[in-house]
Amino acid sequence: MTQEERLDFLIFYLINENADYKNIIVPENPAEKRRLLRSLMNVRMPAPVSEDFLKAQDAYLQLESAKKGVTKPRDLTPVEPGIALWQGDITTLAADAIVNAANSQMLGCFVPCHGCIDNAIHSAVGVQLRLECARVMSEQGTEEPTGRAKITKAYNLPCRYVLHTVGPIIYREVARKDCELLASCYRSCLELAGAYGLKSVAFCCISTGEFHFPNELAAKIAVQTVRSYLQENKNGMEVIFNVFKDTDYTIYKKLLGQR
């Protein structure tokens, strides 16, 4: 199949799965088609899928990933021992693990084409990630507590694993407990990565954005927690602070002593 043929196959497969989608009109424009596919994948509940679908999906997503390019940890210049700062799309990082800011259901974002990191990661990985997360949560039997971490495969991403953590949601002012929980997110991810023998971990800006944790305070907690972990654990782990927005890049540059 060509990439265009894969796109059509995946769209029609997902439409035919659900009788409610019978009136969906598939657009001609390739960009709109890709957006429709992402939307259909975003709203799909975790359910078995055919091997033909997985084969076409994996080939499609891997080619899309290759088009975006891949950044390896060794390509980054450390700002201090064990720590690097990088601005870009976290789904293109070939670290041992990238961190996903998840919600307590741990199933990914169901809002079509939403701009959160949870949506971006699940969309780039494929339907296998939601299926694996559903298995993990079914075995756990409860929602994921704030400040903990889970690990899954990365499937169609260039990294090896995805670490999922639920950060605190800020409704009014930030309380001391919120700061402790955010620090726990970072430490839990690092400890889980260490237990798996991973040597490079890329963090997104946990709890900022949709969860409303103030960016500068969140960054201070992140840097402080990572520095403390690396000092306590001489395991050769490399940590990448991945930012997407210019404002976060400026904050982290200042905290890490860059000009």
Automatic annotation (TrEMBL):
<protein>
    <submittedName>
        <fullName>Protein-ADP-ribose hydrolase</fullName>
    </submittedName>
</protein>
<dbReference type="Pfam" id="PF01661">
    <property type="entry name" value="Macro"/>
</dbReference>
<keyword id="KW-0378">Hydrolase</keyword>
<dbReference type="InterPro" id="IPR002589">
    <property type="entry name" value="Macro_dom"/>
</dbReference>
<feature type="domain" description="Macro">
    <location>
        <begin position="70"/>
        <end position="259"/>
    </location>
</feature>
<dbReference type="InterPro" id="IPR043472">
    <property type="entry name" value="Macro_dom-like"/>
</dbReference>
<dbReference type="GO" id="GO:0016787">
    <property type="term" value="F:hydrolase activity"/>
</dbReference>
